[in-house]
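Homework-ish question, so no full write-ups if that breaks the rules, but can someone show me the predicted structure for this set?
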Amino acid sequence: MNIPSKYDAAEVEGKWYKYWLENGYFHSKPDERKPYTIVIPPPNVTGVLHMGHMLNNTIQDVLIRRARLQGFNACWVPGTDHASIATEAKVVGRLKERGLKKSDLTRDEFLDQAWDWTREHGGIILEQLKKLGASCDWDRTKFTMDDDMSASVIRVFVDLFNKGLIYRGYRMVNWDPEAKTTLSDEEVIHEERQGLLYYLAYPVEGSDEKVVIATTRPETILGDTAICINPADERYTHLKGKKVIVPVSGRVIPIIEDEYVDMEFGTGCLKVTPAHDVNDKNLGDKHGLEVIDIFNEDASLNHHGLHYEGKDRFAVRKEIARELEEKGFLVKTETHVNKVGTSERTKAVIEPRLSDQWFLKMETLARPAIEAVLKDEEIKLFPKKFENTYRHWMENIRDWNISRQLWWGQQVPAYYYGEGKEDFVVAENQEQALELARKKTGNTSLDVSGLRQDPDVLDTWFSSWLWPISVFGGILDPENEEIKYYYPTNDLVTGPDILFFWVARMIMSGYEYRNEKPFTNVYLTGLVRDSQRRKMSKSLGNSPDALKLISDYGADGVRVGLLLSSAAGNDLLFDEGLCQQGKGFANKIWNAFRLVSGWEVSETEPAPKVAEVAVRWYRSKLGQTLHEIEDHFAKYRISDALMATYKLIWDDFCSWFLEMVKPAYGHPISKTTFEQVIALFEENLKILHPFMPFLTEDIWQHIEKRDSDKALVVSDWPSIPEVDHGLLEGFAMVTEVISGIRTIRKDKNIAFKEVLELHATHNGSAFNGNLDEVVKKLGNITALHYNIEKVEGSVSFRVGADEYFVPVAGSVDVESEMEKLKEELSYAEGFLKSVRGKLSNERFVNNAPEKVVAIEKQKEADTLAKILTIKESLSNLGK
RNA sequence: GGGCUCUUAGCUCAGCUGGUUCAGAGCACCUGCCUUACAAGCAGGGGGUCACUGGUUCGAAUCCAGUAGGGCCCA
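A: Not a homework solution, just the prediction itself:
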């Protein structure tokens, strides 16, 4: 075998990814095998790969590659979403650079621009995923704005409308004045902001009295239509039925009473601005108040703002505060911390705003989704703790505002034929709409020019909530082969931040449109943070360049680095050192391979006993570890599965096994042993492949020239070897013996090359099945003597109840030997005391299970024996 | 303000239905080694009142209550 001395990740990764693609290993089509399906959480089409994506997709790749090895028909569907707000913001930004405004373009012209942008930037992120090694079925790549995907969305809208679940409502919505669109509640982030609480005095009509209210938003007084007091508040009883004059505008508004008012907050007297606060809106509705909207869509003031018309809300806040002060209306200000809603996308402060929007009723849709997760456990969340969060949201679910005042997305399929609120029809296309409208109005001469489609588009999540169905064409053609084969999918891997946005809604659409769950397991990853626990963000600049990491540490190294510290649901504190560890691991395996491949193989050399026991032992160890790994995977503890693999390969395979089978310098290895070593190496590669696909495939192909259908990526997951527990226990004891010998070498400055002899108090039975050969080889021991009571001029150590002696040249330091023995003795005596304490406690002996008592008794016996040997050694030394 | 959740070694975290899997892992740290696969390595080692206070129990990191301090979600 001709092996390069250095592992060149960059070259290897490019080569094997290409090979995998050329051979279509990632492509799936329905067949007689069981499917294993994952749909990717579609990233934003114009985004770039960040650490969150890397983690997320590494986990998906681990799962899908393992499933592929296990013989499932593995299908990982990739794709992107159109991200209305983000993409539209970017397109608007680009227009601005050219001195253009969105309103300068027609809708179609604007959409052309958006498509241009998508074509230029879209797919970058998918190319980056390939660098990471993602084994997606690229032939299936979908985009939420593909024709069939959009058609699915429109069909679902029409269907839900016809079922009475979609309605148009005039509601208080979250308005993003920068993007000039509404946002769903979930897209609003509440932040604490330091602000001022303004105390304003409103003159009471027809008296000299003034009533003081407290507000954080003095500019909204221009939209006030009432003052509200608590009917139980005796301070204001005398004001009942009176009116006050709004400062600056001079409008006269009523004083109303409602128990909603918190008497403790501020002055206990509340200004009511129904157009700009959702609670005030409710009060207004209840008391039949006028609604005065003082803002334009960019949150500058309109004509109700009087002399502030055209100015921004924050500028007006300062200016009106000054005016109020000058005119004597401002009593005082206090600093005040309050929560302000901001846009997830644009960071703009959200303005509550009344407008016509489309809503989806959630209550009936939520019902099966609640049961599936919390009752029937048809769908499992990992980690389970998220079920509480899920429950809380689902049980308090509110209707979903699905319209957005944007152009980039699926246009709401509602067609208006008149000015009345109900003068519209909903249909999949204009022709059907026309037909419906003619029927509804009885006006047969109505034509398309009399129809006006709603200008708004649908929320991007209204596309992605159908994702597991629509990628397989399950909405447009519910009986097609693909959807029947691949749906429901198996695992979903995503972040907890979109548990409601996306996961919960997919579950709802799944039951509504397939009458079946969309996936069985939901693995929620942690957020990737930096080592100071800060969220990774562009503005902080603490997010490492994903591709640079891959080029520095190799994709395998980065994958290992990310996975090692990402216990499910725990945030991952990213540290480049972890990638370094991953790279180091790759290097370790590479060198192990170089060692093995450098051995000269002899046909005639018989397999030594030590190699024979080594092989038996490693098989057992492999079996034991595979059981652990299976268990970890079953619980979605991917990092633990990796750590178990890491220790198996590094500690057990490299440090113990290879050292045992390694032929003496200049000697060949027996053919039998060599073949066994290679076979075990291959089993390691299979287990490791999901985590480190490139390195493992490369070594696999170096081991021997293989036909294309024998690539590692499509080989088979190891069957679990039988575990010989007795052998594992014996070996564990042997490692302690070897460790004892090594410690003596170190203490006495004896080089490993220098041979030693070992004397043991037992009769050799503790070294069953050639384990003595292991001691000899790894301890560099020439002779083992059994049934020894004591050896003059030797250093001793104990493993279990047995004592071992190593004769050393020169004088033994009796003092320090005795010191060590005394320490051991006092520890053992202390231990004995605690065990006897338990055993002498009647209630323990009577109440504890027999097994536990027996264990304690065994401990007592073992410790007594140990104490005896230590005492003997001490007295021997003392002679 | 409401709900959920967490606090274990210097760091990041395991520790299941209380009992030798009970105090662990990885990294970091310290001490030897350039031993012919690997110094990105090998061998050895130190390090924790399991946040605090009570309770239940023969027995508590584990169960219960309270306190303190983080985090998340919602209003």
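Now go work out the reasoning yourself. Hint: The mean pLDDT of chain A is 88.
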